[in-house]
Amino acid sequence: MAYGAQKIFPIDTKTGTAIGVSLNFSNPGVFQSTYLTKDAIKNNLINFFLTNQPERYLNPTFGGNLRNFIFEQITANNLDFLKQDIQNQIGLYFPSVIVARLDVVEYPDINQVVVTLKYTIADTNISDQLDIAFN
Amino acid sequence: MATIKDIKYLNKDFTELRSSLVNYAKTYFPTTYNDFTPASPGMMFMEMAAYVGDVLSFYLDNQFQETYLQYARQTNNLYELAYMFGYKPNVTGVALVDISFYQQVPAILSGSSYVPDFNYTLYIEPNARVTSNLNSNISFLVEDPIDFSVSSSGDPTEVTIYQIAGSTPQSFLLKKNRKAISSNINQKQYTFDEPVQFATVDLSDENIIGILDCFDSDSNQWYEVDYLAQDTIYKSIKNTNTNDPYLSQYQGDTP
Asked: What pLDDT is stored for residue A1 in this prediction?
């Protein structure tokens, strides 16, 4: 009987060893460390989607560029394009992230679009969900 | 943890600084930060620090470059450096003309041939004023002195026979060329009362070419110097018997 081998990030087993910092930076002491790879990846995804191209110095293609859609009409075509764009960028910058489900829900009355991303990390049992609302 | 940390001082650009910051964090903060992927917020801060370092490095290079006359690009820096080396800008452009000056001198027998009698030669002081026959309102200034008695490769005197009686020259014609500028000499008087450090006055005239001389009320001449510590001014004095009876005998020798 075969078993699907699953990876464990060694750093997750080291208590007290921080991986990254979490967003946002309004916590006491400004920076709050993340101690699990799951939290670090989630914060990296948030940071990626909050970055616009070409804000990052010497890395102009980095960023979700979601703010470009703020002034677009909320139409089915645009939302489909946004959905495809997000999937492409995650595939490019987060190769270990597997998109389980991506929902883009529009709220035209309040000019808001909510992106819900359910994802897993390849070869691990890590799964999480990210909700981004922008208007 | 060691109190003395290994800091690299040779990094100059973004890539080098980013790499050094990552290594520094890995070395000295192994339990505080471990996510060095480009998407992590911590890397964003490290890259921002590297960006600032890159910009400051550029500023440093630029400031250093501006200290060299050969490489300075900003106009004001170029002028300041040039002033430091004694450059004096021409603030006014003037019309320039070539003028020939002639003098007739008698002939004198030297050995078996007749030569110009240089005892009759003229010496015209610097800044001689010359006006045109066509328009006397236009005057030209000959800045260099004219000494018909001296001839050199840099300032030759052309000698031709002017008058002849039979086969004997009676007089010679000496010719000197000089450049003259279209200008007038004006005089201004200013009063200085209490001593003031680095006192300045404004010359109200326009198109000023330069200042010829400066005298005080006691007829003492004041000179422009390159630096205030300079306490000696060399003046050119013609080596004549009147000026120096002893050394004038060597006026034709080259030391």
From this structure: 60
B38 has a pLDDT exceeding 80: yes
Whether the CB-CB separation of A36 and A16 falls below 8 Å is answered with no
ipTM of the complex: 0.82
Q: What is the pLDDT of residue A9?
A: 87
A17 touches chain B (CB under 8 A): yes
A9 touches chain B (CB under 8 A): no
Contact B33/A at CB under 8 A: yes
Q: Which of B35, B38, B50 is opposite residue A40, by nearest beta carbon?
A: B35
Per-residue pLDDT of A8-67, as tens digits, reads 888 888 989 999 999 888 778 778 899 999 999 999 999 998 898 888 888 888 888 887
- HEC-encoded secondary structure of B189-252: CCCCCCCCCCCCCCCCCCCCCCCCCEECCCCCEECCCCCCCCCCCCCCCCCCCCCCCCHHHHCC
From the DSSP assignment, how many helices (H) and strands (E) are in chain B?
Answer: 3, 10
- Cβ distance A114 to A107 under 8 Å? yes
HSE, CB side, 13 Å, CA atoms: give it for residue B219.
Answer: 0
H or E segment and range at residue A127: strand A127-134
DSSP assignment letter at B119: G
How far is it, in rounded angstroms, from Cα B21 to Cα B11?
10
H or E element that contains A76: helix A76-93
Determine which helix (DSSP H) or strand (DSSP E) holds B81, and give its type and residue range.
helix B75-84
Each residue's pLDDT tens digit, B141-150: 999 999 998 8
User: Does B232 score more than 70 pLDDT?
Assistant: yes
Put simply, whether the predicted model's pTM sits higher than 0.80 gets the answer no
- Point out the residue among B34, B38, B41 whose CB comes nearest to the CB of A11: B34
Choose among A30, A36, A28, A33: nearest CA to A11. Answer: A36
Euclidean distance between CA atoms B184 and B110, whole angstroms: 43
Which of A27, A33, A57 would you mutate first to test chain B, the one with the most B CBs within 10 A?
Answer: A57
